[in-house]
Structures are given as C-alpha cells and as structure tokens.
Design goal:
By secondary structure, the protein is mainly beta. The protein is built from 1 helix and 13 strands.
C-alpha cells in the first residue's frame, strides 16, 4: 500500500484531535460557559494636549469578558508628534483600573522599517506609548489591534 505525505500528515494531525475531543468529553465542566461573552460599552480615552483623535476613528476602550477571562480592547487612531516615550492619555473616569501594567503592541507610522510601538496602561490608568525618538518620531498610533488580558 502506497501512502503520500498528505495522508501521513492527515493521520498525524487527526490523532491528537481525536484524543483532545475524548479528553474534553470526560472533563469536568468549566465554571464559566465558554460561549458567554460580556462586552462593556466603548468609552472614549481622555487624551493629553497635543494628541489629536481621528474624527472618524475616535480612540476608545472597553472591557470584554469571555468565559471568565477579562480582556481590554481598544480602537481608534490618534495623531501626534512624539520624539520620546510619552503619556498620550488616561482611562476614562469610572473605568476599572488594572492591578498591574497592561501592554500591547500597536501599529504606528512606518519609519526606518519600524512600524509598531508599545502601548502601556499603568495601575493609575495612564496610557503611554513607547518607542519614539528624535530620529524616528511617532506621528500616528492605531489602537485597533490592542487586545490584552486585563488584570
């Protein structure tokens, strides 16, 4: 009997999947239903002077809980002229504060081959961007890809 690489690979991938399905069937149910999603309302960030929100993509954040795990999601676009690490804003009043630093990589203007920067929220709710310098300023930051576990 002749077997090609595709059939061998298919069999190799099917075995762990079959074991996983059997393991899940025998497992104790989780405390939270994996299909449960609780999404909070989008709330605008409070921006620092010199940080300009995009008129059609206002920077906003929300907390989303999926199967018992809470995530921060952000969206929107800001324009700026950052030549160093800088605070760009803060979480809105009444928004839950993290118990530790929360970080995500977000797109920025492509300069010298660098097209991402670090977005960070500290325990006081300050939102900062890291990665700019005088030779490679950040002129805009897109927040849509920021999704991280909230603590």
């Amino acid at each position: 009997m002749s077997q090609n690489r595709r059939s061998v690979l298919g069999a190799a991938l099917a075995l762990p999947a079959a074991l996983t399905v059997g393991g899940l069937a025998a497992a104790t149910p989780a405390a939270a239903d994996p299909g449960t999603v609780d999404a909070g309302a989008w709330t605008p960030l409070v921006l620092e002077p010199g940080i300009t929100p995009n008129a059609t993509a206002i920077p906003e954040v929300r907390l989303v809980t999926i199967a018992g795990t809470t995530f921060l999601q952000a969206r929107g676009l800001v324009t700026c002229n950052l030549t160093g690490d800088a605070k760009i804003g803060r979480l809105p009043d009444g928004f839950a504060l993290p118990t530790g630093y929360v970080r995500a990589a977000v797109p920025r203007n492509n300069s010298q081959g660098i097209n991402a920067c670090r977005l960070e929220i500290n325990t006081a709710g300050s939102v900062s961007v890291f990665g700019a310098n005088t030779g490679n300023p950040i002129t805009w930051v897109q927040l849509d890809s920021a999704q991280t576990v909230w603590r």
